[in-house]
């Protein structure tokens, strides 16, 4: 059995290697929906697009019309995700399953792009890897193997025996089988201060139940490492380990995980005893095998199914071990009835981590009815979402029905609130995305979960206390310290409606928390009254009677409903050593010492550790010039952040970044301000910048971008971010060096993001300096409308500006390069109405043409260099016609596959027959293959619109030009295919396999535009073993592909066929061809599902 498994793994690994090579020959351009390149290394990975079909299945978007139909799909098919608004499920279906769907009357379309993205994400092993054990996962250096995970966590127990225990809680399936593979122990890491007695509230964190979800185990492991490394340093983490317990199962399915580490999309465990004859489909879905409601909707009885529930409830040793361990951790607090709620004072919390979907799910999964504690479960879920930005809801109604799953077992059986976190956007999530978009935000959510474990049904409804600080933090015996903090009752996100109430009280205790009997003392509102949902708190701590040494101050707040929130803490140190008094020496008058900017009473600080004092909140991206916390220079406090390359360091090509995620309240004014200390000489290439990014790391706004020499002085920047309120965003600072000539660096300190009531302005900093106030480059309008200039004169070119043109024939003088859509009234060159020269292009229906339903378009395909620092689109247009609300003019950016990427401009207004220039900044699309697409649409009724366009330029510039910034991303019409006259091959790739008698394939060649003309084409084979026979060489036509394999050695072969459109300026497309010759074992690509 083991030998056969290894042969299957090696064959699939070799196939994936071929598919990876085939991807290199795929058509130019990025996959639709891929993140665009930013001027920052947020998404540093995400390789070539792979082939878009598989010999063993196809990704289908299957429409459903009712919850019952969705439940039927969830119980029988391999669902990746569900879009409830659009009413479809994304399903991986084999040929036979596709036939079943058709026979059952379901409507569906193929999603070749998502299939290509998935295949391209799988680890690819060298062809000579053989059957060796996996030591590392190719392309995924950030994720530890099972063995590495166990080694890291066991080492925590060895090195920190007072904090950690590494215990064996059971066996994997393979370990229970005599004479089989060795298998694994199931281990739990227990973290708590073992010198402080209990009982203590417990938080159970479980990861990697589904083997292929690589990010989950790593997140859990990093959480454990964070807690241990910061114990005794961070006051919150210290009290959590003193008074609570974390139980962590990082690898819940180690047998299956080893298959995923070897490059297989494995989901289940490896149990092969229940009748499935295909080794690649063995296993039981451990998240359908738990005993609570086992056998209900959302699970399969087919042992080859991805959602096979097993032969009996808790039949699998992994499931049984986790249930038995759970019963030792938590008391049973819920009745046996489906509607029996758990008591409000229930202790304990469970989270199981999965991929993917950016979701926080709670019970029920088995039923669409609300769980008895649904309101409390949703409240705590929205607390998690404040940190990770995910959508919150019950599993059954937010995703799809499931039964026998882990979170329903813990809640349904024991009454413990239980959640599933669905991380990110992929099973095999790239390391760069994991580090930038998943890790820190979910660590913060898990820290909140650990805090809430004592009262999970009560504390999340209360206020959260942040920004706890003492001045001074080191005092002499009897000296008074001033305690300040912020209490907020509105830190929720994730959808739905969560009520917020005014703060009613706040308190602190020293050394012993209130729930352990510590005496409490009141804190007061700084503005004199508890009357707002956010309050700045203050109080005095008399240290008389405190022994010398470090003490902990616990702070908590209550709202008007009586709900006390979770606790936050800070250290205070009492010392007998007096503070040294410096000897006065006559010198020149020193500059005033800067002090921290006060947060106004009515404003709430949204950032964590804006002064970089305690190492939390911020993420420094790992690059050749990774930023760091430094002790000099600083503006206030003890630390600041350094970005860029200082003179003593080697000059290299590098980004240097630090960032933090934050949710902006929807009902307040938002102000960002920070101190910076820029340095370095200007060479025109290096850049310092501050950006505002969306939560998924796509571009939102440029706050500051500077190529000027640094001043070497502290200066404050202030920006109004109110247009972006209500969004979860990333505050992102970056310094870019190109590795040549001079270098840039920057220091940051006192970064504040303040939410203030409407009409109020944050007070100035304690140290006044000239403050340049900026406005982010774009507005929040999704489709920007530039300011028109009616005077037909060329726009001025800034001194020193240099631009390199990317378009061909942008003035339309040569009648080349541009292509015109085949529509009922085509666009065309025009000589009567021009801005400059002898020709322009006319689109739409002038009044001398009868009204009709028609698009009228002109377009050109090009690639923007990845190194472009600014990409500028300019054109002159002369719009005409009357408005009727239906007709429109538009300028679009399409992907290289002619799918809608972004709307640059769309207008339904009447034209004035005046020439005006439009200017747009497309810098965010550097590195993309794009189609620049101009169009006028008329619906054939009412008025008519037209437009003339001339002097179109898309250029890479060396100096920033004032322009409307076009944000990257996918527009609301995601997936729409533009009717362009280009060749389309179906299928887009060919796989030949003589072991399956698949030695010949037919490719249909058509015009992507179904209403377009016949396109002449020719086919050229790129390898001697490929035979390409064409029929009619115009669209629609056929291409017969076969392999000349008689003289070839057994093995894998990859090549291409180039299809060339013979029209003037016609484009070529590439059809990858793979040949599996003389290999007799069938390859199976496992089904994929959360």
How does this structure look, described?
This protein has 1090 residues and is of the alpha+beta class. The chain has six domains: 2-121, Alpha-Beta Plaits (2-Layer Sandwich); 158-459, Zn peptidases (Aminopeptidase, 3-Layer(aba) Sandwich), CATH 3.40.630.10; 462-574, Immunoglobulin-like (Sandwich); 604-774, Sandwich (Jelly Rolls), CATH 2.60.120; 803-965, Galactose-binding domain-like (Jelly Rolls); 983-1077, Sandwich (Immunoglobulin-like). 15% of the residues lie in helices and 32% in strands. The strands form ten sheets. Strands 5-6-8-7-9-12-10-11 form an eight-stranded mixed beta sheet, with helices on both faces. Strands 22, 24, 25, 27, 30, 32 and 33 form a seven-stranded mixed beta sheet that branches. The protein is globular, with a radius of gyration of 31 Å.
List keywords for this structure.
1090 residues; alpha+beta; Alpha-Beta Plaits; Aminopeptidase; Immunoglobulin-like; 6 domains; 8-stranded mixed beta sheet; 7-stranded mixed beta sheet; 13 helices; disordered N terminus
Number of strands: 53
Strand residue content:
25-35%
Low-confidence stretches: 1-55, 126-134, 579-600, 765-802, 972-977, 1080-1090
- Report the CATH architecture of the largest domain: 3-Layer(aba) Sandwich
**By helix and strand content, what is the structural category?**
alpha+beta
The outline comes out as globular
